[in-house]
Amino acid sequence: MSFERMWRDLAPVGRDARSGGYFRQPWTTPETELRAWFAEECAARGLELETDGLGNQVAWWRSGEGRAVLTGSHLDSVLDGGAYDGPLGVASALAAVDELRERGVTPARPLGIGVFVEEEGSRFGRACLGSRLAVGATTWEEARELRDRDGVALGDVADGADLDWRLAERVGCFVELHVEQGRDLVDRNAAIGVASGIWPHGRYRFDVTGQANHAGTTRMEDREDPMLTFAMTALAANKQARLAGQRATFGRLDVAPNGTNAVPSRVTAWLDARCDTAEALEELVGEITRLGTERAGRDGTALTVTAESVSGTVDFDPDLARRLAADHEGGDWPIIPTAAGHDAGILSAAGIPTAMIFVRNPTGVSHSPEEHAETADCLAGVHALADSLERLLA
Ligand code: HGY
Ligand code: MN
Ligand code: MN
């Protein structure tokens, strides 16, 4: 099975020897290597590769006529991420093409395999940046100014040529296979599932400014300490999310000047908030902002909150979900929600009928080196994707 050979090819690319996690940030050597790998795999299958100035790639199996069926996912990772989030969908798409050919399928319409760049937003901060630009949900004028942690602007590492894929005209539906990032399938004892939708979620930058001062000679009551304001805000975020049954995470922090013996002048922290409805998201972020602002008032510091990346509620096409989930040996695949964002969410929001196929992750852990999927379930995923594509290409 070509999947296992491809999986072995991918395993070492961008892998950190110590943690076993992956650093495949966009426009870095490992990720550039992955794009080249994808191009080679497509060439080996006679798929016609298209790319844009950003590095998004779509490979076409020209067959039949009319609007294409698109599948695929992303190859970039979060910092110290898992092996499966993204690449599983790309390798499975290539292996599914092999399987369709082994089955003697001649598609009645074109089939595309898409690879969207910077899905994780781990470098330039905007989730699903590649697919957002491909469907026009973000403009190049705005995106080119996004900066990474070293201050490098997106416009300095990529050009905005040919970004308009006109996908809504060229593509009839999109199906993304992805490792499940939770334990729903494990708890259901199911290897394969279909997504019903994606929770609304966003990333918000909390900038707290205070007064730099000596850690020893400054009395506690005389301080304007942004770290204290941040710490209390993080506590408030955790408590409010628990009370509301939602999700709030501060996973990234930048302290200036980051010295050991000085009260910091500034603390910047990024909140990742996710809720089951748009109203709940607005309410949770609003409440965390209110509590942080109130705390800043008591600490003599100042807090500003800036939304950096917001993704609205995604309801995948219910008919497409049911059509893919139904009539399988062993019964219908479960149709389940997720709080993880995906390129599929962006294409769905752009009006393209979209579905996601989930592959069981026995650890339920993701965005971590512990992320895992058993080979048997990965192969079940390839068959599931081949079955789904065969239905859609008939
Ligand atoms: O952050 C997310 O939800 C996705 O994994 N990009
Ligand atoms: Mn991810
Ligand atoms: Mn992903």
What is this structure, in a nutshell?
The chain is an alpha/beta fold and about 400 residues long.
What is the N-to-C succession of helices and strands? HHEEEHEHHHHEHEEEHEEEHEEHEHEH
> How many β strands by DSSP?
15
The main pleated sheet reads as: 9 strands, mixed
Low-confidence stretches: none
The DSSP helix count reads: 13
End-to-end Cα distance, whole Å, is: 24 Å
**CATH architecture designation of the largest domain:** 3-Layer(aba) Sandwich
Q: Determine the fraction of residues in helical runs and give it as a percent range.
A: 25-40%
Which hetero ligands occur in this complex?
Answer: (2S)-amino(hydroxy)ethanoic acid, manganese (II) ion
The average pLDDT score comes to 97
Domain count: the total is 2
CATH superfamily caption of the largest domain: Zn peptidases
Report the β-strand fraction as a percent range: 15-25%
Looking at CATH, which topology of the largest domain would you report?
A: Aminopeptidase
Structural class estimated from helices and strands? alpha/beta
> What best-fitting shape do the alpha-carbon axes yield?
elongated
What is the C-level CATH assignment of the largest domain?
Answer: Alpha Beta
The rounded Rg comes to 22 Å
